[in-house]
From TrEMBL:
<dbReference type="InterPro" id="IPR058240">
    <property type="entry name" value="rSAM_sf"/>
</dbReference>
<dbReference type="InterPro" id="IPR005839">
    <property type="entry name" value="Methylthiotransferase"/>
</dbReference>
<keyword id="KW-0479">Metal-binding</keyword>
<keyword id="KW-0408">Iron</keyword>
<feature type="domain" description="MTTase N-terminal">
    <location>
        <begin position="4"/>
        <end position="116"/>
    </location>
</feature>
<keyword id="KW-0963">Cytoplasm</keyword>
<keyword id="KW-0819">tRNA processing</keyword>
<dbReference type="Pfam" id="PF04055">
    <property type="entry name" value="Radical_SAM"/>
</dbReference>
<dbReference type="Pfam" id="PF00919">
    <property type="entry name" value="UPF0004"/>
</dbReference>
<dbReference type="InterPro" id="IPR006638">
    <property type="entry name" value="Elp3/MiaA/NifB-like_rSAM"/>
</dbReference>
<protein>
    <submittedName>
        <fullName>tRNA (N(6)-L-threonylcarbamoyladenosine(37)-C(2))-methylthiotransferase MtaB</fullName>
    </submittedName>
</protein>
<keyword id="KW-0949">S-adenosyl-L-methionine</keyword>
<keyword id="KW-0411">Iron-sulfur</keyword>
<dbReference type="InterPro" id="IPR020612">
    <property type="entry name" value="Methylthiotransferase_CS"/>
</dbReference>
<feature type="domain" description="Radical SAM core">
    <location>
        <begin position="141"/>
        <end position="377"/>
    </location>
</feature>
<dbReference type="InterPro" id="IPR013848">
    <property type="entry name" value="Methylthiotransferase_N"/>
</dbReference>
<dbReference type="InterPro" id="IPR006467">
    <property type="entry name" value="MiaB-like_bact"/>
</dbReference>
């Protein structure tokens, strides 16, 4: 009997990638062969996102592409969009099963023989989000350099624009001991760098059926710093009110935790932060950035921003623009506000029309490019360590410094997974850094 082939496609965040990888390993443990998405697989699993715009259109497009590769394939949809709109997704032509947040990690057991439902409509397996109470460990795995390690899931916050609590449920976490054990196993595989991920990463510590707060994120960071065999840890997105001074100072003194933070801001206007129901104001945010730069002058700081939120006037937007311009930050991700069903924001007065959202988005993205180039140029001439990744495009490979400067190099298989001591020499036309080794510029275009 031929081994059945399964392929995956992931939309969205690093957390989704870690979960897709974990589901993929479940298939492989059952004897399935994991193949690339563009191959003719027997089963396609599409992991969806609901955060960015056009979730429905993206889902439909990926389903259509899967069926081009194999019109007879079984297509399964999981992820945040699957939890929020299961019945709608089940109506998409070619979709055979939709699994919610509480079911996706039992996919292989629930679908068993992967038999297509009668009647042409996909079968829905999606419990109410209140039933998604168990923490499921996950990590990405596919190269020797970096893995995304899920340590927390869900969110107890109630930001007025966000559907994530509806899609993933309440905050819940792994234990420090369990995470340490997983990291020790990963160390034995040759992984060089681990990125800690979660929906609300800084809220780590709620555990068990009663979600008792047994530990906190600081406990996890301190424990992982003691694990041998992993050279680099990165903290992915962390809320500014949860990124404590203690954690910042600990990272500053650590040899393993990299001087790189991604801290969502969303708005530089206290008025808009209030309407968003965020749990901090701009003064706290500025204090976090100031402390990071005080104790780690070369640290990279990334920011998330939403523009065009209901009630955001031109004055409010310019307040955000000038606030970001004055902050000592390295880059930011800019998102035009998009309405989400079952959230509070669409009911707020002062809708910003689409053209204005686009204009403000363009302005901030242009500012981000300037901030990033300035950050890179500050490091010209610096000797640093670059970890190269197994990701090659047009004969070029990339690596990252501890503070997340992207370095471009000509592909060399001997560099993959290697940490090289280099001198940063030039920012190229693509906005990537170039470097030299031993005084000879061998890594340039």
């Amino acid at each position: 009997m031929n081994t059945r082939k399964v392929a995956f496609y992931t939309l969205g965040c690093k957390l989704n990638f870690s979960e897709t990888s974990a589901i993929g390993r479940q298939f492989e443990e059952r004897g399935f062969q994991k193949v690339a998405f563009e191959e003719a697989a027997d089963i396609y699993v599409i992991n969806t996102c609901s955060v960015t715009d056009h979730a429905d259109r993206k889902c439909r497009k990926v389903v259509k592409e899967a069926l081009k590769h194999n019109p007879d394939a079984f297509v399964t949809i999981v992820g945040c969009y699957a939890q929020l709109k299961p019945q709608e997704i089940a109506e998409i032509p070619g979709v055979h099963a939709v699994l919610g947040a509480a079911e996706k990690f039992q996919l292989v057991d629930i679908l068993a023989g992967f038999e297509k439902p009668a009647g042409g409509k996909g079968q829905v397996y999606a419990s109410p989000i209140s039933e998604a109470t168990e923490f499921h460990a996950a990590h990405s795995f596919g190269d020797r350099t970096r893995t995304f390690l899920k340590v927390q899931d869900g969110c107890d916050y109630s930001c007025s624009f966000c559907t994530i609590p509806l899609a993933r449920g309440k905050s819940r976490s792994d234990s420090v001991q369990s995470v340490v054990e997983r990291v020790q196993k990963l160390a034995g595989t040759g992984v060089q760098e681990i990125v800690l991920t979660g929906v609300n990463l800084g809220d780590f510590g709620l555990q068990g059926p009663d979600r008792e707060r047994r530990e906190d994120f600081g406990d996890l960071v301190r424990a992982l710093d003691e694990v041998e065999g992993i050279n680099r840890f990165r903290i992915s997105s962390c809320e500014p009110n949860l990124l404590t001074d203690e954690i910042i100072r600990f990272v500053a003194g650590s040899q393993r935790f990299m001087p790189h933070f991604h801290i969502p801001l969303q708005s530089g206007s206290d008025k808009i932060l209030g309407l968003m129901r965020r749990r901090y104001r701009r003064a706290l945010y500025a204090s976090r950035v100031a402390l990071i730069k005080e104790v780690m002058p070369h640290a990279c700081i990334g920011v998330d921003v939403i523009v065009g939120f209901p009630g955001e006037t031109e004055e409010d937007f310019l307040e955000t623009y000038y606030f970001l311009n004055e902050l000592d930050i390295s880059y930011f991700h800019v998102f035009p506000y998009s309405e989400r069903a079952n959230t509070l924001a669409p009911n707020l007065p002062g809708r910003v029309h689409d053209g204005e959202r686009h204009r403000r988005t363009t302005m901030l993205r242009s500012l981000s490019e300037k901030k990033k180039r300035y950050f890179y140029e500050q490091h010209l001439g610096l000797e640093t360590e670059v970890l190269f990744e197994d990701d090659v495009t047009n004969g070029q490979m990339e690596g990252f410094t501890p503070n997340y400067i992207r370095v471009t190099a000509k592909y060399d298989p001997l560099l993959v997974g290697e940490r090289k001591r280099l001198r940063l020499t030039n920012v190229n036309a693509q906005g990537h850094m170039e470097a030299e080794e031993l005084g000879i510029e061998v890594f340039q275009h």
